Amino acid sequence: MRQVKTLGQVLAALKAERDENTCREDFRPTEALAIGERLVKMLKPEAEKRREATQGRPKKGAKKTGGKLPPVSKTRDAVGEAVGMSGSTYANAKAMLAAADADPSLRPIVVKLDETGSVAVTLRSAIAGPSSRFCVGLSMRSSGVQ
Among positive and negative, which fits the CA dihedral 47, 79, 8, 70? Predict the structure, then answer.
């Protein structure tokens, strides 16, 4: 078992695992989400520290960083990249799974997600299809309503 200490090491290890998988079948979206959730649990404390460090006014005597700051990456983008998706695709897949967990009648959407392997196609067909309950479930989940 490999021990990692930094965000860069975690992402590199997950990318290596993903790349090693190229000789086999691609991860199904639900498998990618499961890996992503584990990664989020590992990244959350570090993300909280970064967020707290940037809250409020700079402390007296703090070193000035200048106007050119490195680009800030969101946790969802880092996780999405590690599992082979964009951050927004990862967020959409996660919202679909959460909506299906909240309403078991939406479970067929998750089955279709794994069958097609495409988050975008499944999302479009779910929104355009007769299952308008999915749209309500998705919008409630994304707005934080339980």
Answer: negative
The residue segments making up the domain with residue 134 are: 7-53+77-142
Total-model pTM: 0.65
State CA 133 to chain mean position distance: 23
- Evaluate whether 135 touches 89 at the Cβ level (below 8 Å): no
Give the phi and the psi of residue 134 in degrees, each rounded to 5.
-60, -45
Provide the number of structural domains found in the chain. Answer: 1
Whose tokens are 């969101």? That residue is 74
Per-residue pLDDT at 90: 92
Distance of alpha carbon 120 from alpha carbon 39, whole angstroms: 23
Segments of the chain with pLDDT less than 70: 1-2, 4, 20-24, 56-73, 129-146
- Enter the DSSP assignment of 66: -
Confirm whether 71 is domain-assigned: no
Q: Provide the 8-state DSSP code for 24.
A: S
Give the up-direction half-sphere exposure of residue 50: CA atoms within 13 A in the CB hemisphere. Answer: 10
CA distance 48 to 50: 5
